[in-house]
From TrEMBL:
Taxonomic superkingdom: Bacteria
Gene3D superfamilies membership: alpha/beta hydrolase
Organism (species): Streptomyces tamarix
SUPFAM superfamilies: alpha/beta-Hydrolases (SSF53474)
Protein name, as recorded: Acetylxylan esterase
Pfam name, any one: AXE1
Length: 323
C-alpha cells in the first residue's frame, strides 16, 4: 500500500473541520453525573494464573447505567506499596483476553488495568462484558448503534465505562491514583483520548494509531472498516448525513484532545487506511498539553509501530509516572 494521505509536512499543520457542539461540555458533564449516580462497586478477585512474577485480579465495576464491566488488574508480585497504574483500552472487536497476555507494564514495575469493552470481544481477543442496551437498526459492528442521537450512541456508554475504569483502577490500595496513565491502540487509543479530555488529573496519555478521530475526514478519505460502517449506514439511510454528523461530533477525539491536561505520546502510520494519518494528526495538533510527541512510521499500515511503539512508550512513560 502506497501513501494515500497528505504529505508529512501538511499533516503536521493539518486541522480538522469537525465542529464542536456548543453543549459538548454540558453533555459530558451530565453523562458522567448519571454514570456516577451508580456506586462504583469495584471488586477485585484474585486469580491463580500460574504466573509467578505478577499477581492478577479479575475485576468487575459499574460502568454506564450501573452495568457490570469486566477487567484485569495485573500487579508485580509482592507489591506492598502503591505503584503507578497504566489503564489500557483495547482495539475494535477485541476484549480483555487472557491475563497472561498483559505482562508488559507489570514487568516495568507498574500496575496494569485492562478494561473489557462492552459488547465486543469476539473479533480477535475474547471478552466477558455484554452491552445490555439495544439500538435501532444499525450496520453490523458498533459504529452505527444508536448513531442518530448522542444520548443513545454506543460510544457514550463505552466512554463512560472508560472513565469509571480509571476510577476503579485508582480505588485499589496498591495503585497510586496520582500517577495514572491512559493508553490504547486504535479504538483503545481513541478511548484513551476521550479519557484524556474527561479526566482532568491524569499523569500521561499514550494514544497509539488512535481511532475515533476527525470523523468528517475519516468517513470520506477511507473505505476501510470500521469507518466504512458509517458510510454504509448513510448509503441506506439517505438524508440523515447531518443528523449522524451531529452525533459523531460529541465523540470526536479532536474535541477531547483540545481539553487534555496530561503529557501525551501519539503514533501514526503513513500508510494506515484504517486510521488515516491525517485523522491522527488532527487529534495530535489539537492536543492541548505542550508536552506532546508523535512517533511516525513511514511505511506501515494500521499495525503501526507495534513492538517499536511499545519500546518508545517504555522509554517515555516512566519519566511521567515516576517523577
Amino acid at each position: 500500500m502506497a501513501r494515500f494521505d497528505l504529505p508529512l509536512d501538511e499533516l503536521r499543520a493539518y486541522r480538522s473541520s469537525s465542529v464542536e457542539p456548543e453543549d459538548f461540555d454540558a453533555f459530558w458533564a451530565k453523562t458522567l453525573e448519571e454514570g456516577r449516580s451508580h456506586p462504583l462497586d469495584a471488586r477485585f478477585e484474585p486469580v491463580d494464573t500460574g504466573l509467578s512474577t505478577v499477581d492478577v485480579h479479575d475485576v468487575t465495576f459499574a460502568g454506564f447505567g450501573g452495568h457490570p464491566v469486566k477487567g484485569w488488574l495485573v500487579i508485580p508480585a509482592g507489591t506492598t506499596e502503591p505503584v503507578p497504574v497504566v489503564v489500557e483500552f483495547v482495539g475494535y472487536g477485541g476484549g480483555r483476553g487472557l491475563p497472561h497476555t498483559h505482562l508488559l507494564w507489570a514487568s516495568a514495575g507498574f500496575a496494569h488495568f485492562v478494561m473489557d469493552t462492552r459488547g465486543q470481544g469476539s473479533g480477535w481477543a475474547g471478552g466477558d462484558t455484554p452491552d445490555p442496551v439495544g439500538s435501532a437498526p444499525s450496520v453490523p459492528g458498533f459504529m452505527t448503534r444508536g448513531v442518530e442521537d448522542p444520548a443513545t450512541y454506543y460510544y457514550r456508554r463505552v466512554f463512560t465505562d472508560a472513565v469509571r475504569a480509571v476510577e476503579a483502577a485508582r480505588s485499589h490500595p496498591l495503585t497510586d491514583a496520582s500517577r495514572t496513565a491512559a493508553i490504547g491502540t486504535s479504538q483503545g487509543g481513541g478511548i484513551s483520548l476521550a479519557v484524556a479530555g474527561l479526566v482532568p488529573d491524569l499523569a500521561a496519555v499514550a494514544p497509539d494509531v488512535p481511532f475515533l478521530c476527525d470523523f468528517p475526514r475519516a468517513t470520506t478519505v477511507t473505505d476501510r472498516h470500521p469507518y466504512r460502517e458509517i458510510g454504509q449506514y448513510l448509503k441506506t439511510h439517505r438524508g440523515k448525513v447531518e443528523r449522524v454528523a451531529r452525533t459523531l461530533a460529541y465523540f470526536d477525539g479532536v474535541h477531547f484532545a483540545a481539553r487534555a491536561t496530561a503529557p501525551a505520546l501519539f503514533s501514526a502510520a503513513l500508510e494506515d487506511l484504517t486510521c488515516p494519518p491525517s485523522t491522527v494528526f488532527a487529534a495530535f495538533n489539537a492536543y492541548a498539553h505542550d508536552d506532546k510527541g508523535i512517533e511516525v512510521y513511514a511505511f506501515n499500515d494500521h499495525e503501526g509501530g507495534e513492538a517499536y511503539q511499545q519500546a518508545a512508550q517504555l522509554r517515555w512513560l516512566p519519566g511521567r509516572l515516576t517523577a
